[in-house]
Amino acid sequence: MSDVHVVEPILVMKNVSKSFGAVVALADGSIELYPGEAHALLGENGAGKSTLVKIIAGVYQADGGVYTYDGKARNFRGPHDSQEAGIAVIYQEPTLFDDLNVAENIYLGRQPLTIGRTINRREMRRQARVIFEQLGVDIDPNRKAKGLSVADQQMVEIAKALSKDARVVVMDEPTAALSPEEVKRLFTVVANLRERGVAILFISHRLEEVFEICQRVTIMRDGAFVRTDLIGDLTIDQIVRSMVGRELGLLFPKTDIAEGNEVLRVERLTREGTFYDISFSVHAGEIVGLSGLVGSGRTEVARAIFGVDKYDVGAVYINGEKLKGGSPLRAMHAGIGFVPEDRRQQGLVMDYGIDHNVALASLRKLSRGLFLFRWAEDKLAADWAVRLHLKYGRLSDEANTLSGGNQQKVVLAKWLAGQPKLIIVDEPTRGIDVGTKSEVHRIIDELAQSGVAVLMISSELPEVLGMADRVLVMREGRLAATINRSDATQESVMMAATGQV
Amino acid sequence: MSVVNELSLSQPMKTHRVAEALSRARELAILVVILVIFAGTTIKSHDFAHVTSIQQLFTNGSLFLLLAVGETMVIVTRNVDLSVGSTLGISAFLVGDYFTHNAHPSLVLAFVIGLGVGAFCGAVIGFIVTVTKVPSLVVSLAALYIIRGILNIIGLGVQIEPTAIPLSFQKIGFETWAGLPWIFIIPVVVTLVVAFSMRSFRPMRELYAIGSNPAAAQLAGVPVARRVFTAFVISGTLAGLGGVLFLSEFATVNATAGSGYELLVIASCVIGGVAIFGGSGTVIGAALGAILLQIINQALVVVNVSPFWDSALAGALILVTVSFDRLLSNRASLALRLKDSAARGK
Amino acid sequence: MPLVGNNTSTTSPDETLLSAEKQHWSFSGRSLFRWESALVLFFVFDLVYGGTSSPDFFSRNTIFFAGINFGLIAIMALPEMLIITTGEIDLSVAAMLGLACSSFGYLFEHHVEVFLAMFLTLCVGAVGGALNGFLVTQLGLPSIAVTIGTLTMFRGLAEVILGTNEVSGFGGPWTDAGTNAIPGTPFAWAFGIFVVLALIYGAVLHFTSTGRSIFAIGLQEEAAFFSGIRVKRIKFNLYLISGIVCAFVGLLYTYETNTARYDAGTGLELNVVAIVLFGGISIFGGRGTMLGVFLSVIVVGIFDQILSNNNVSSQEQSIVFGVLLLASVILPNAGRGYRAVRKRIGSKWPRSQSLNENAAAISDL
Predict the structure, then answer these.
(1) In chain C, whose CA is at the least distance from the CA of B324?
(2) φ, ψ at B192 (rounded to 5°)
(3) B57-91, pLDDT tens digit by residue?
(4) Which residue range forms the structural domain that includes residue B264?
(5) Chain B closest-CA separation from residue C184 CA (Å)
């Protein structure tokens, strides 16, 4: 990659800073992007990555430092300016317009015009098709964006970037919600972009991916630049240490304990069009991993067990007693807790206090007669905050003031307060920084030790392999394999998940 | 694996086309219902198709048509304008006041006054909504009261007499061209112009983008505030035009002119397929919705059903259309799910 | 649970203590900017303005007439408050009043025994409320569209039942409840009923698990559902109760005016919504207090009365009302802006930063 450095960098940030009131979000942001490179930006949550990206995109304006793009000093006044200049940012949250069709999503505000200054729809569709062909994806430019898979939404975003001849493409955790095949497709596109001389800034929590597609890496910590290196010069260990600034304990601590009684038994559970004929059981003290590609029906099975969705055929038993489906409340009373996939939408009431959130699943129990008083909620929340080592300001603080990891602890506290027999955790560490991740793992492990049955869904194979006593693998809505801890390896699970047994 | 991928990509497309065709069929469906009611009542009573009866229908419907067109633009941006009735009232009054105090009034100036008053009201609401970020439901609700109150104060003791309104102006209300009254032609032309521009001009397309995903619109560099502001100004202007036409039709105004219109206007939009939370719906649909609400009223009279049933039926119609919309989209998503899995199962 | 007593604790007891102290400090700081405080100021303004504009202001009459003129809207504001707090809206309240009025008038005219007629009228309310609830919760339709539909339909049915007839001559002991004060007090019955209901509603909203659920639904419905809250059932019940309460108000209205007409209370729905919003209930749901709505009723009720005493027409009062409504949504925002500015200035003295504000700013990034 040494030849890359012969050319001038397209984008340079040097000692860029940004504060909000007294809070310094970015103390020293520095990065250099060269045309044709894929550059990883790594750091824990709160390290200042998002702020840096938002300054690049013109959403925020830097307080100090130098921001040079294409040889000129810049201070973009808004996202519009940076887009004009050729910078495209693909945000984590989808930014498409559901009600507009795909072609219009790509060309909004830049639609090709006829002589009469009206929009030339045919030309717009044709151009969109050309771009999709270049990307090697098959999306109908005429369909509405509503209902597109996350992967296809990203492809539309990338098509948007291409259509603007973007010279810098920033991708903020693009692979978080993708299946391995979709990741593969994305990486092909990234390689494709590099060949055209586009500089790519790639943000991800998955270090394996960084090693796969990036040439250089910049690491940030506590709002400041730490180092930039060629990826080949670093090991995963070195990267993690630079990110965290301290040694990490074991990431996946699973204590072996003897399994107890059967807590959950699922028999021939079927929801038409989603999953079919799912049977398995989970015992007290056991952690069962539910693995498979995104879209294989893992989350849907969990939702059905918890009563969020209805199922058509089959039965769920808790401690041998049949659980009637279709109601989270009944599932709760039967002793199930559910830490859902989407923490911000489903796990927490983000604008509600920590105390209210912790108490939310125990309202009845906290009531004295007809009434419920705040001190009862506070007591419960304070208790759990200590037990789970929650970092917070005040118990009445809204959940959205917490970091991702601490938010997840609040969700866990909410369910643990109900003393569940079975807890289902869906992607328990998604979007959580490395440090807090191991804390969440320890909490889950301690739960199992205390005799709770745990069903864990995760897209991170190392997590599943490290934590689970048994791994169930789903493929296309069916249970493809059950693999014991001793036999479970990355290869065996992936083979089952992709059907190459 | 790639086969799986292609299948899962291509399958939802078809379902989607069906859904899209259905949404386009919305305008057609309302049109058919209107024609059926029209034909049915004509068979029952041959007078109904008589020119004057149609004219009456058009005259009554035209004001709502105008307001519904403006309201659609606002609702599409995920906002709502409850002040249209009050704006119509104050515009009608001020134009009448102009006629009363000028011996030789100019018709052009009358229109300018009416439209200007409307645009001003819309601009104030749009300004408050975009600057303070206060929900438009609340702002326009407040505006409804304030504008109506101002109308009452300036209207205290002022009587707008039909004699003061020039005949040339009143002619807009009853004179026809090719069998159609001017008071109908003007709103229809406005509807068509707005419908065309909402399909074909970049800034108007951005209104849909804003309603569909406001945060994303901001990130995409859409000048959200300016567009929303413009939508309110146009809605206000059309309400102002409604006031001018109101005056030409009735030749008199009192302080209650246009009161209570706001909810009927929103109802027209809902019937016409405008999504109440923004992002989709067409002006033509809303306009047809307004006409449908009016024709029911007229038809009842003719078929000898007590006119008391009018609003009960209108209410039922609103409920049926929104329910029907939801059932259709539920079925579409179920079909999508099943087809998706069928594709995967292969 | 063995989760207790892990020795790698990061939140020491001292820290917890510290945060409790902070909580106390900032609570008083925060409450200065509460909307309720502004409403109290409005109330004081009411008294000063009323006292200076009319020598008879501080009399039983003012209180009685304010109660009788405003009591009905006030009562309807209570169920509306809960519905708006869940993030929905009910625009059919006044139409339900009219439908109840018509139904009761019709039954009375046909010599149905009064108690039975009242009971049937309340049943009509329940059915109407249940219809709203069904469409909103079971079909998942937007409540604003649904209740515009039922508004039109209820009013239409009222018209079908009674036409342009006007039923009057109800008489009996109930007339007393409609037109007189509660014996020994200057309060109209309608106002008394409002106060009692407000106490109940306030208790439900702030001191029961149902109230917590209502707030949670308004803030984030999906998360509430995933926490085992029966979102649909709660919303359905709120609409059902709203229907019954509004039908009850319809009965009060009938006795207050001693007539039953189909157009009773036309257009009041927006007044009801406005009162609730002026009380500080967020139109997006999830925020607001019973105290705020109570104060809002008192402030606006008395103000209306002052203007009426001064012969200001009710139409002109609507300007004042509109301005107040705007103020109620803009001022708290301005307060937030002021806090933000203060925070920025205060940044020179880092001590004034509470942990919370830091955290909030960081999570915004």
Answers:
(1) C139
(2) -65, -40
(3) 777 788 899 999 999 999 999 999 999 999 999 99
(4) 52-296
(5) 37
